[in-house]
């Protein structure tokens, strides 16, 4: 019988056996296990977009991007720049913001403008500019700025991480408003050495601004000759100006540690001096290249220069500071500060400088000496600078020193300025001010600020937090359809004394200028302007029973009572309406009308008061309930018993000249007099609301609006548009006779009554109104035509009152807001008045929405946080002084720590048992709903670096006698483990936690009151995060990413738990979230994101299987933590947030998926069906195709408009397309338009285009596409 040897599997091991041929054939013929039916994975795409840019600032550069007269400052982040104008009042005004598709590697300023010699008058602060860093200075080459055809005095040069160099400036747009212009140089993509990701690590511009040097670390640098500013004209399109005239590459042997340009002698301004520090074999050399302006760069850099070896103590200088005297420079090393001379004529000579600087401050967290991190050059009069140079030096622990170096390179002056209470990073700058030096102190570990050198803090500018965790004040158990207050987002940020909790907020900032507490019972208030006549303002307010008035001087310094004989108002009755029109002031109360000319100070003939008893003699004992004043009409609603009547009085000067009246059927709930539409009356009759419109002379009829709650207030605006608010929280918008019809829209914006007042902005043509609801203020902008000619569109933004002096203060609960007529300290702002409890607040409302974060300082390092709905507080795991672990229970509204640690006997302690150990850290923090025998108890679970697993009990103390709320907490159970507890969760009666790489599944024994082991399972690496999925366990492990584990709890044998699914990728994960029943979202440290699908498997199968990957993509940042939450404002909830346009529900309660990075960037994730993905990807591909038209000569390729890739869409590019409204430019051929229509026809089974029945025009499809983009790109918090 024929036989042969082969390998067979026996008892789980491969062994070699001799098998005869017949046995082999029988084994092949035997029926095997039935193959599982192959199931195709669902087709799903992912849309990601940045909803909050990082506030981390890498550098701060004063730069005149518009003109010599605008004191602009560029705040450079990782992917974005923010241009702000520093104003004379010490505040910043936002000018423009731009986000780039690539990270910004480096930045500097090109160009300057002449500073006339002998400038003595510094009152015109904006007409001169400080000679700042050497990269920014040009004392002779730039032209005068007089013609609009020329570029501004300076440009901003940015090096991106893909080796592009972008030159940026600001010019007027088509509407006259500031707009970015840019010119991009792609030529540096050619050298393969520049594709390693660090090109532009060093960057400098010479003092003449005619040359720029760029380098990578790896021995290659480029010197570019720039065009003279005299040859520049302002382009109308991108990339129509060539900034780089030519360039030359030069390689060196070694690593380029630093480079800069030195100053030439004053009599030899065309002398160009480039200094490089090159490190090879652990030794540093100083290399100098010299040439004259206009020399051939190929000849200058034809050969490498060897240079001179640096002394040992100056081997690795951290900073090179060129001095304006003698072509010298200051080299700052960790141990020494020295000035280097004779660098052009032989071996360098270093002379140490003894600075007046104290030892390290409490802001220093390192083990060695604090390092000098930044410098800047202040402005001084030219005659003062003759023969000397002036510098500010900043140290990382907040120390700032001012020095002066004379022409002999001796230290003439060294002055310690201050030990500022913040860390200082490279984002340090001097700003010009006509009274004192102003310093911008940027931090990479806490709050940055702006200080005058005289010791005055002007403002906090930005927070640069390492963000480790975040939480959303939202419970996943609430019903998705319920309207509710939006979830708030809180991030654990900062380190040590600068640690804080950051509340992420987006909306229109309202900078609080004055807050006056005037008493309870405030119903409405008005600020009346008498500054031109009497040099004062009158603050008039009303309560339910009377009115009051106070006077404010023009500088708002004091609130005083008027003299009794100067009170011109009716203060005995509640005020209904007040206005200043045509030179007179009109007050309407429930009892009278008062009219007086603005010049009047006392009761004279130019002051008149008309009581309603005399005006309305046909209605004795009349009650006046509502009033409004419009131009020269006073309109009131009155009633005697159930009968309501409308009176409208026309006045001229202080005299009432005519009167119109008419009865209405029903109860009047609101009234408004529109110049275009007439008298608008809100009525309630027969159990239904009505809106009635009349002219002052004839009735035009009434129209039934909707069966909703009673109309609370009416406001007419913009020609034939009417806005109404209801007691039930609805905002109704009626467009009268729009396209020969009356169109009615309504939207729920809150849960309480809606009040409406007019707002105005001087820099926009779009009408705006202020709406108060749910103790918050909302600005509503009306777009008269909407995108692409659609009907009226309302854009809503929350108004966020902000106190620049206390960025952690709770936001006032605003009951009412209105625009007021006072001078605004800053251009482009609207002064508004708000009522908040007993206070009247006067603030400046910003024109454009943006980030308005709240920073709650805690003075400790927060590492973990989550929101507890049961405790209504943020639970924060922190390290306090001495790196001891503890817990905080923070009230989200007040920002106060309301936690009280106690022992089991109830005695207050500093730390509960198990916490408070030095050099410890909280790795795991979670809330556990312990369920046993139908009962539920809530505990906190804490896992620490020192191996402590702690079960914490909590108890809320009731409010008593005005005492603030508090939460007592103590250790109920504690278990010591043999290694760090990296993650922990609770499930029913069990606690699952990971110690080193061992998973433990313990059960709490209520009798013995301790945790009893039930199961253990060894992983290949530690578990960063855990989550229960039905009966299985999802574990995010350090080496193997996501694993789905069957714990096999009923099997008591060892190692019975099995891994059923694992991530097929080799990545280092950071966070994960289960987004649907069988789908998880996973992020990794390499900026990756992927959707993993658990596909159905045959029962009883226990071998490993790989998750199917549905999509993957690259993010702009690495996500540290994923969270879900329903954070959209109320008007975006309910029916307004149902899935449409192909959006898939991401969480069971239709919440949002948010991710945060360590630099504070927040990313929003949206799941797409295949049709939505194909449409959005098609648009992105077309945009990339257009953007790369300038690169095709370099890359030789074109993107395919139909390219699908890895099922990922970049939402930031879609936002750029939407803002620029360039869809028509992208879809510019019949072939592309045909594809575009097909993609839109496929959305949601064609319900959006079916009504066109094949007759839809291109405009119809473009309008639909814009609506799709607006839907996907709405702000989510």
Automatic annotation (TrEMBL):
Domain of life: Eukaryota
Stated name of the protein: WGS project CABT00000000 data, contig 2.5
Biological source species: Sordaria macrospora (strain ATCC MYA-333 / DSM 997 / K(L3346) / K-hell)
Segments crossing the lipid bilayer: none
Domain RSE1/DDB1/CPSF1 first beta-propeller stretches: 57-453
């Amino acid at each position: 019988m024929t036989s042969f040897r082969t390998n067979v599997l026996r008892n789980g091991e491969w062994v070699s056996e001799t098998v005869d041929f017949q046995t082999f054939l029988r084994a092949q013929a035997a029926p095997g296990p039935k193959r599982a039916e192959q199931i195709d994975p669902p087709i799903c795409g992912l849309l990601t977009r940045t909803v909050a840019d990082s506030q981390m600032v890498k550098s701060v550069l004063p730069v005149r991007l518009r003109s010599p007269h605008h004191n602009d400052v560029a705040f450079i982040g990782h992917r974005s720049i923010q241009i702000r104008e520093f104003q004379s009042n010490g505040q910043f005004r936002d000018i423009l913001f731009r986000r780039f598709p690539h990270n910004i590697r480096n930045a500097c300023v090109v160009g300057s403008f002449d500073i006339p010699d002998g400038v003595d008058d510094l009152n015109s602060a904006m007409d001169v500019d400080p000679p700042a860093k050497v990269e920014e200075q040009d004392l002779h080459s730039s032209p005068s700025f007089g013609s609009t055809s020329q570029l501004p005095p300076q440009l901003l040069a940015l090096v991106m991480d893909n080796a592009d160099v972008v030159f940026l400036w600001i010019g007027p747009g088509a509407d006259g408003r500031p707009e970015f212009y840019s010119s991009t140089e792609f030529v540096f993509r050619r050298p393969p050495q520049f594709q390693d990701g660090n090109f532009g690590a060093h960057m400098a511009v010479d003092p003449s601004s005619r040359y720029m040097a760029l380098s990578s670390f790896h021995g290659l640098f480029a010197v570019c000759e720039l065009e003279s500013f005299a040859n520049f004209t302002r382009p109308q399109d991108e990339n129509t100006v060539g900034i780089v005239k030519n360039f030359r590459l030069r390689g060196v042997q070694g690593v380029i540690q630093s480079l800069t340009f030195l100053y030439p002698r004053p009599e030899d301004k065309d002398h160009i001096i480039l200094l490089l520090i090159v490190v090879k074999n652990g030794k540093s050399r100083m290399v100098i290249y010299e040439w004259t302006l206009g020399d051939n760069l190929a000849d200058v850099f034809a050969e490498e220069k060897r240079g001179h070896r640096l002394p040992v103590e100056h081997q690795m200088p951290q900073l090179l500071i060129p001095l304006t005297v003698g072509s010298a420079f200051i080299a700052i090393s960790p141990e020494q500060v020295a000035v280097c001379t004779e660098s052009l004529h032989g071996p360098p000579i270093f002379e140490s400088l003894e600075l007046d600087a104290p030892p390290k401050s409490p802001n220093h967290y390192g083990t060695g000496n604090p390092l000098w991190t930044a410098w800047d050059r202040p402005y001084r009069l030219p005659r003062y600078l003759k023969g000397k140079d002036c510098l500010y030096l900043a140290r990382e622990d907040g120390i700032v020193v001012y020095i002066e170096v004379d022409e002999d390179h001796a230290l003439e002056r060294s002055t310690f300025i201050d030990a500022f209470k913040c860390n200082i990073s490279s984002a340090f700058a001097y700003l010009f001010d006509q009274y004192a030096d102003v310093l911008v102190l940027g931090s990479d570990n806490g709050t940055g600020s702006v200080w005058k050198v005289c010791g005055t803090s002007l403002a906090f500018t930005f927070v640069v937090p390492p963000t480790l965790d975040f939480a959303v004040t939202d419970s996943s158990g609430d019903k998705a359809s319920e309207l509710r207050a939006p979830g708030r987002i809180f991030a654990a940020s900062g380190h040590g004394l600068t640690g804080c909790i950051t509340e992420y907020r987006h909306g229109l900032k309202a900078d609080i200028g004055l807050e006056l507490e005037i008493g309870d019972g405030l119903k409405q208030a008005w600020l009346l302007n008498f500054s031109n006549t009497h040099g004062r303002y009158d603050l008039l307010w009303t309560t339910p029973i009377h009115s009051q008035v106070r006077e404010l001087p023009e500088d708002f310094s004091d609130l005083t009572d008027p003299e009794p004989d100067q009170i011109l108002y009716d203060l005995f009755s509640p005020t209904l309406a007040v206005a200043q029109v045509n030179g007179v002031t009109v007050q309407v109360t429930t009892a009278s009308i008062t009219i007086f000319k603005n010049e009047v100070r006392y009761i004279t003939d130019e002051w008149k008061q008309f009581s309603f008893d005399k005006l309305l003699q046909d209605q004795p004992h009349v009650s006046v309930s509502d009033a409004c004043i419009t131009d020269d009409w006073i309109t009131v609603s009155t009633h005697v018993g159930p009968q309501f009547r409308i009176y409208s009085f026309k006045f001229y000067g202080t005299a009432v000249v005519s009167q119109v009246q008419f009865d209405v059927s029903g109860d009047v709930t609101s009234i408004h007099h529109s110049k275009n539409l007439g008298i608008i009356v809100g009525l309630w009759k027969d159990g239904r609301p009505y809106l009635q419109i009349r002219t002052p002379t004839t009735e035009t009829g009434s129209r039934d609006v909707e069966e909703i709650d009673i109309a609370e207030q009416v406001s007419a605006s913009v020609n034939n548009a009417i806005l109404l608010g209801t007691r039930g929280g609805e905002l109704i918008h009626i467009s009268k006779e729009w396209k020969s019809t009356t169109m009615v829209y309504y939207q729920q914006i809150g849960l309480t009554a809606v009040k409406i007042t007019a707002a105005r902005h001087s820099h926009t043509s779009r009408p705006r109104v202020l709406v108060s609801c749910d103790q918050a203020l909302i600005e509503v902008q009306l777009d008269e035509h909407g995108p692409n000619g659609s009907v009226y569109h309302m854009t809503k933004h929350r108004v966020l009152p902000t106190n620049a002096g206390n960025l952690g203060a709770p936001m006032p609960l605003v009951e009412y807001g209105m625009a007021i007529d006072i001078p605004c300290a800053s251009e482009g702002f609207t002064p508004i008045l708000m009522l908040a409890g007993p206070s009247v607040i006067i603030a400046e409302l910003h024109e454009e929405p943006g980030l308005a974060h709240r920073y709650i300082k805690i003075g400790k390092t927060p590492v973990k946080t989550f929101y507890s709905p049961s405790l209504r507080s943020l639970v924060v795991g922190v390290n306090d002084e001495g790196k001891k672990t503890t817990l905080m229970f923070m009230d989200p509204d007040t920002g106060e720590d309301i936690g009280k640690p106690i022992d089991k006997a109830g005695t207050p302690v500093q730390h509960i048992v198990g916490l408070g150990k030095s050099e410890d850290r909280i790795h795991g923090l979670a809330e556990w709903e312990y369920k046993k025998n139908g009962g539920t108890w809530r505990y906190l679970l804490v896992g620490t670096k020192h191996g402590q697993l702690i079960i914490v009990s909590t108890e809320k103390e009731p409010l008593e006698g005005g005492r603030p709320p508090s939460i007592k907490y103590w250790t109920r159970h504690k278990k010591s483990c043999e290694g760090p507890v990296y993650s922990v969760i609770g499930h029913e009666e069990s606690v699952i936690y990971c110690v080193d790489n061992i998973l433990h599944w313990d059960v709490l024994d209520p009798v013995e009151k301790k945790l009893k082991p039930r199961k253990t399972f060894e992983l290949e690496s530690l578990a960063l995060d855990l989550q229960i999925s039905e009966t299985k366990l999802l574990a995010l492990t350090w080496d193997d990413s996501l694993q789905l584990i069957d714990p096999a709890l009923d099997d008591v044998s060892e190692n019975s738990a099995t891994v059923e699914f694992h991530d097929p990728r080799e990545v280092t994960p950071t966070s994960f979230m289960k987004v649907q029943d069988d789908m998880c979202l996973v992020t990794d440290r390499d900026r990756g994101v992927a959707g993993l699908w658990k596909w159905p498997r045959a029962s009883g199968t226990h071998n490993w299987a790989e998750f199917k990957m549905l999509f993957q993509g690259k993010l702009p940042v690495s996500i540290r933590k994923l969270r879900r939450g329903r954070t959209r404002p109320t008007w975006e909830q309910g029916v307004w947030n149902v899935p449409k346009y192909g959006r898939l529900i991401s969480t069971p309660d239709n919440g949002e998926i948010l991710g945060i990075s360590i630099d504070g960037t927040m990313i929003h994730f949206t799941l797409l069906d295949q049709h939505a993905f194909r449409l959005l990807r098609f648009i992105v591909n077309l945009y990339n195709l257009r953007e790369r038209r300038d690169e095709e000569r370099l890359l030789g390729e074109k993107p395919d408009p139909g390219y699908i890739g890895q099922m990922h869409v970049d939402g930031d590019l879609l936002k750029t397309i939407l803002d620029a409204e360039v869809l028509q430019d992208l879809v510019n051929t019949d072939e592309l338009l045909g594809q575009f229509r097909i993609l839109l026809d496929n959305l949601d089974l064609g319900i959006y285009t079916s009504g066109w029945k094949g007759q839809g025009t291109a405009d119809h499809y473009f309008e639909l596409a814009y609506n799709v983009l607006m839907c996907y790109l709405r702000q989510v918090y």
